Amino acid sequence: MEITERIESRVRSYCHSFPAVFDKAEGCFMYDTQGREYVDFFSGAGALNYGHNPPHMKEKLLEYIERNGLTHSLDMVSTAKERLLGQFSSTILEPRGLEYKIQFPGPTGTNAVEAALKLARKITGRKKIISFTNAFHGMSLGSLSVTGNAFKRNGAGIPLMLSDTMPFCGYFGEELDTIDYMERFLSDTGSGVDLAAAVIVESVQAEGGINVAAFDWLQRLAELCRRHGMLLIFDEIQVGCGRTGPFFSFEPAGLEPDIVCLSKSISGYGLPMALTLIKPAWDQWEPGEHNGTFRGHNLAFITAAEALTYWKSDRFTEEIQKKGKAVHRRLQEIADQYSRVFQPPRGRGMIQGLPCSQAGLAKKITRTAFDRGLIMETAGPEDNVLKFMPPLIIDEETLTRGLEIAVESIEEVVGRAAPSSNTVALGSAAERRETI
Ligand code: PLP
After folding, report:
1. How many CB atoms are located within 10 Å of the residue 12 CB?
2. Contact call for residues 310 and 242 (beta carbons, < 8 A)
């Protein structure tokens, strides 16, 4: 810790939420140098949907390293990449009737977004991109220009241009339909809003506060894009790879976006990797027009291909949905019990949020949870939403254990912070277990 304090930049942040020196991790658990065990309800911000060091991926990785398999290859053809492309095509695209060209844009989520924005501008010749209130798409300049959060945007140090923000689903409450609102702006030549090259959207805004877009809202957004010649970009970086249940979060809406950004859990193992999926007609790049050194991370390709075995049937989706419902039910009980402190939970599948009505409370709760052995984060522009994002492979017992730590932390903090608020106990551990 001392060397970190002394020479690592002040820019770090998660280490303040989780002040320990971590050493090992397995499945749904992380361990610090004191040997303390933490239940992980954070999943590496969505990069560890299959847990830490999944044994079957580790085995494939070790075998590959042992035989001196190629590690770095830019965009040269490698056996590891060909296997991954084959698996992605046969396991993910073909069964869903989806047709995409696959671009390796660079190792991180923001690389996938930058490639998508650049390509949409090239295809349409238009300059603007439309994004949504509370969106988060990454920290490089193009991605920041379509991100809502003022603190992150200010970090750019220059004006962020060529994007227009529109209200996300439900932004003004139920009264105002935000697709109608957008339609009015786009069809009125006096509105001052230019037709954009693309609209970029998350079906569930994760960093933005677990804001869920209704499926019919997404369908109408797709129609609006078609009507106005704007490409539809789905940012699946945090809520793709099964986080909401199906592999792609847009599947239940029956959509086929023009461009899809994937990263985080696509490698399955926490290794950096990203993909930009492009409808074949839009694959209009010239060779080398969007380049980068680290687009051929073969170790990630090995684990990514192995991770796709989870998706050979619908079973995994069903399990995720079942667990997600159990988490939601438990959070609803908490919200009912502490109705002056929490709003109703929201989320889809295994990304669930519990919004706090009191400023600063969510951070106190996650800090208390950490002290009690649970890693979980907050979301939203004011950090006011408790974010529940366990690994998708979590077993019932660990899920219950993590939820109970969260409940105990809420009891401790809410009892302390607001003695006048409802602090009724939340039921016995045995009763709680029944909800999972
Ligand atoms: N898009 C979404 C929806 C994200 O949640 C994130 C990161 O949290 C990004 C893009 C950026 O990904 P990265 O941090 O890997 O650049």
Report:
1. 9
2. yes
AA identity, residue 279: K
* CA nearest neighbour of 262 among 280, 247, 252: 247
- Write out pLDDT tens, residues 95-134: 999 999 999 999 999 999 999 999 999 999 999 999 999 9
231: left (phi over 0), alpha (psi -120 to 50) or beta: beta
**What is the pLDDT at residue 304?**
98
pLDDT 10s digits, 268-277 = 999 999 999 9
**Of 237, 162, 242, which Cα lies nearest the Cα of 207?**
237
Cα 202 to averaged position of ligand 1 atoms, centre (Å)? 11
Is the CATH number 3.40.640.10 carried by domain 59-311?
A: yes
Tokens in use for 10? Answer: 């002040």
The order of strands in the sheet holding 29-32 is 22-26, 29-32, 37-40, 374-375
Is there a contact between 207 and 379 (Cβ–Cβ < 8 Å)?
yes
Q: Is the CB of 114 under 6 A from ligand 1?
A: no
State pLDDT tens for residues 74-104: 999 999 999 999 999 999 999 999 999 999 9
In a 3-state reduction of DSSP, which class is residue 431?
A: helix
Does 235 sit in the ligand 1 pocket, CB within 6 Å?
A: yes
* Residue 287 half-sphere exposure toward CB, CA atoms < 13 A: 2
pLDDT at position 415 is 79
The rounded Å distance from CA 110 to ligand 1 centre is: 6
Quick one: pLDDT band at residue 432, thresholds 50, 70, 90? very low
3-state helix, strand, coil in the chain (%, to 5): 40, 15, 45
Q: Which pLDDT tens digit goes with each residue over 224-263? A: 999 999 999 999 999 999 999 999 999 999 999 999 999 9
- Cβ–ligand 1 distance for 249 under 6 Å, the answer no
How do beta strands 211-212 and 163-166 pair?
unpaired
- What sign results for the dihedral spanned by CA atoms 395, 354, 168, 196? negative
**Whose C-alpha lies nearest to ligand 1, atom 7?**
138
In our burial notation (b when 16+ CB lie closer than 10 A, e otherwise), range 370-396 reads beeebbbbbbbbebbbbbbbbbbbbee
Q: Which residues contact 131 (CB under 8 A, 6 or more apart)?
A: 137, 146, 147, 148, 163, 164, 165, 166, 199, 200, 201
Domain residue ranges of the chain, discontinuous segments joined by +: 59-311, 314-347+369-378+406-436
- Quote the longest CA-to-CA distance of the chain: 65
